[in-house]
Design a protein that fits this description.
By secondary structure, the chain is an alpha+beta fold. About 40% of the residues lie in helices and about 15% in strands. The protein has an eight-stranded mixed sheet, with helices on one face. A five-stranded mixed sheet has the order 11-12-15-13-14, sandwiched between helices. α21 crosses α24. The chain is elongated.
Length: about 800
């Protein structure tokens, strides 16, 4: 008897041994290789247990199998080799049943509705798609005519003509392209999503002799069906130079069939090409307006390589004779006879004629060395409806992993009436796919928000023609395009900053400087590109802005960081008390007035560390080399208790009171704590619509009050503390000194009216009797002495006399 372990059984099952087939077995159950009779007899004597996923637990084999109504041998997989071989030899297995193959069935009308309405969200793109198909037909004819000139002998002109019948709601588009035969009508228009252009491109690739670039647009074979967005019936009449007959294809919206017939009307015969007639739905008959058709052509198909003509109403001025009234004609005739002239007037004669619509040429397809500055400027004005020339332009071609052409412009002024920093949904970038306009509605897909002022066109060969917002967001091609467009935009702006004409960049900074500052906050990847473009006023350059490179060149040898102070204006920033010692040492400080957080803006500087220490309590780094330890120790000994006295008076308004080393002419200053908000930061936080007032209250308590021990006011305060710490005038002087420091340091007082009252009271005390006459002074002194006597009158207690008060 052969006994196999559990691991042996598993290995045999994995190796595919057909001698053993076990469907389910208990852990630890032995499998015996013996005859069926022996196995059956032992199966009744020994009650082995097994586990099944069908019965939730442990059960007897016989009971469970009966309960499950399954054959024991099949379920447990018992099989003897000799019996299996006998059965295989005695009877042959029946052949497998035949496999039937079916084709997918579809409701064509519903399928077409899904395709058209899912691909096109904008109804007006139907004309773009039909013009693109017509352009492909013309391109095919041009390619095939190279080897077979007989194809283009019937009609020499390669153009597209669009006729709009506003009264009847009909649009007719005719091209003189390659046309289609009867079979091509069935293959291209009768088969959904089959592109004739794609087949033609495949044939060109297979033909090694047909080299060179191509301008074919179509890819998916569904552009034609966009006509059903606005039309309920479409008729296609086409004549191929390969066929002697002209055929008419006709289809209706919602129908699962179409018709093809031979054209027999001599008036409708065309020499070559295709004529598409759209019978518009009642709700979309407005598309049949000739002016609207012309506008759509200029918007979407302005740069198609073939001329597009639209049927437009025109007029010219001419002079005609005027028939006057008989009563008036007598006097006029006498005058006319004297002059020998007849009376006429100017009228406008109206007529209809074909007008070329796509006059502007796509200059981005030309070599940049062949395009002049005047041509770039003219293209900018026409494309974006501007009247001023741009500050700079960049024309480039990108090849390799992604292929596209582009022309970018820097506008001369920022747009009027709207803030593009907040609203990044601008229409400044026009995206084309093979010269066909796709969209100008972007939300950061091609340029980040801070570069939304850049204008230009981008023509890609790699993007699909039916581009949607989702495709743009997820497309790897678009991400690569964005990186290269941003790099070219920075190069163009840097070129303006390095030009000899300094006024150009000053003009740019006045209009778009806030955009670049926003870029310092939002785009950390391009900090090195942004840093050379930033401009600031400084304590040594109030009229002309300087770059950070110029600031570094002007730094002192002992200066190890870039110092800055932020305020709401240049004047208040330069006259801030924090800068007094710095100005004496001729250390340059950048003056920031932007509404953006200054540290985040200057964080883009990779040159040196930032230092806002001029507005912080610790000023050692700023004034390195000027420390006099003996003088500081003497000042602390002299004014140490006075600082504690002032802190006790101010309470929670300040975190501490210290002796300052940054002041020279001011008696005191209020600086923000090391982790607190500066005055400019408080101003910005208060301006937020959803500002956190709790944080504002907490940060207020982190301020540090610094005093100047060399100032006369501080010396008088120190004398007041030593003589009478409880003197009310001294207390008022401390309060007023704190409020004055609050304002001079850039903070906002909580109660301006109270501050004004304190100032008026001090003025009254200081100016009392200074310019008055002697009589008025004597009267004021008598009034004051009288008031003093009243205040100092003795209080007499009642006395009892004879039991009475």
């Amino acid at each position: 008897m052969l006994r196999l372990s559990k691991r042996s059984v598993s290995s045999l099952l994995r190796s595919g041994d057909r001698s053993f087939r076990v469907a389910a077995a208990a852990a630890g159950t032995s499998i015996h290789r013996s005859s069926p009779s022996t196995t059956d007899s032992k199966r009744g004597d020994v009650e082995s247990r097994w586990y099944s996923s069908l019965t939730n637990g442990k059960c007897r084999r016989s009971e469970s199998l009966a309960h499950l109504n399954m054959k024991t041998n099949w379920f447990m997989g018992y099989r003897n080799e000799s019996s299996a071989a006998a059965s295989d030899s005695s009877s042959q297995a029946p052949p497998p049943p035949p496999v039937e193959k079916y084709k997918y069935q579809a409701e064509v009308s519903r399928l077409m509705d899904l395709i058209v309405n899912s691909l096109y969200s904008n109804k007006e793109v139907f004309l773009r798609e039909l013009i693109s198909n017509a352009s492909d037909a013309l391109d095919k004819l041009r390619y095939l005519s190279v080897t077979d000139p007989e194809l283009s002998k019937d009609a020499a002109d390669l153009d597209i003509r669009i006729y709009a019948d506003k009264e009847n709601g009909v649009i007719t588009l005719t091209d003189s392209g390659i046309g289609m035969t009867r079979q091509e009508l069935v293959d291209c228009l009768g088969t959904i999503a089959q592109s004739g252009t794609a087949k033609f491109l495949t044939a060109l690739k297979d033909n090694k002799d047909a080299g060179g670039d191509n301008n074919l647009i179509g890819q998916f074979g569904v552009g034609f069906y966009s006509a059903f967005l606005v039309a309920d019936r479409v008729t296609v009449s086409t004549k191929s130079p390969k066929s002697d007959k002209q055929y008419v294809w006709e289809g209706e919206e919602g129908s699962s069939s179409y018709t093809i017939k031979e054209e027999t009307d001599p008036e409708l015969i065309i020499p070559r090409g295709t004529r598409i007639t759209l019978h518009l739905k009642p709700d979309y008959k407005g598309f049949a307006d000739p002016e609207r058709v012309q506008k759509l052509v200029k918007n979407y198909s302005q740069f198609v390589s073939f001329p597009i003509y639209t049927w437009q109403e025109k007029g010219y001025t001419k002079e005609v004779e005027v028939d006057d009234d008989p009563a008036e004609s007598k006097q006029d005739n006498q005058d006319d006879q004297a002059e020998g002239k007849k009376k006429t007037k100017k009228v406008v004669e109206r007529y209809w004629d074909w007008e070329l619509t796509n006059e502007t040429q796509p200059i981005w397809l030309r070599n940049s060395k062949e395009v002049t500055t005047e041509e770039y400027n003219e293209f900018y004005r026409k494309t974006f409806n501007e009247y001023l020339d741009p500050l700079a332009s960049s024309h480039f071609t990108t090849e390799g992993e992604v292929e596209f052409r582009s022309i970018l412009y820097v506008p001369p002024v920022s747009p009027m009436g709207k803030d593009d920093v907040v609203n990044q949904k601008t229409k400044n970038i026009r995206l084309y796919v093979k010269r066909v306009f796709i969209s100008d509605d972007f939300d950061g897909e091609l340029f980040p928000r801070y570069l939304s002022f850049i204008k230009g066109v981008v023509d890609s060969h790699d993007l699909p023609l039916n581009v949607s917002r989702e495709i743009l967001q997820e497309s790897r091609i678009v991400r690569i395009m964005k990186k290269r467009l941003v790099k070219k935009a920075f190069d163009m702006i840097l070129g303006i900053s390095l030009s000899e004409n300094r006024e150009d960049y000053e003009k740019f900074w006045d209009n778009f400087g806030k955009h670049l500052k926003l870029g310092c906050i939002e785009d950390r990847e391009n900090h090195k590109r942004l840093a050379p473009l930033l401009r600031f006023f400084s304590s040594q350059s109030e009229n002309d802005m300087i770059s950070l490179d110029e600031y570094v060149e002007n730094m002192k040898a002992e200066q190890k960081a870039i110092y800055y102070v932020a305020s709401d204006s240049i004047t208040s920033a330069k006259n801030a008390p924090f800068l007094e010692k710095l100005l004496e040492k001729e250390l340059e400080v950048t003056l920031l007035t932007s509404l953006l957080r200054p540290r985040q803006v200057l964080h883009a500087i990779p040159l040196l560390p930032l230092n806002r220490i001029i507005t912080l309590p610790d000023c050692d780094l700023v004034l390195t080399g000027d420390k006099n330890e003996e003088k500081e120790a003497a000042a602390k000994k002299e004014f140490g208790q006075t600082c504690d006295w002032i802190k006790k008076r101010l309470g929670d308004k300040v975190a501490s009171v210290q002796i300052s080393s940054r002041l020279s002419s001011s008696p005191c200053v209020l600086v923000s704590g090391k982790f607190g908000w500066s005055a400019n930061m408080e101003r910005l936080m208060k301006a937020q619509s959803a500002g956190d007032t709790t944080s504002l209250e907490f940060m207020k308590g982190r301020r540090v009050f610094e005093i100047n021990p060399d100032h006369s006011i501080i010396k008088n305060i120190n004398a007041a503390y030593k003589s009478n710490p409880n003197d009310e005038d001294a207390m008022k002087a401390i309060d007023l000194m704190y409020d004055a420091a609050l304002v001079s340091s850039g903070f906002t007082p909580e109660n301006p009216a109270e501050l004004g009252g304190k100032i008026y009271e001090m003025m009254d005390t200081a100016l009392s009797g200074k310019w008055s006459s002697p009589e008025v002074q004597q009267q004021q002194s008598m009034t004051q002495s009288h008031n003093a006597e009243l205040l100092e009158a003795e209080v007499v207690e009642p006395v009892e006399v004879d039991g009475k008060k």
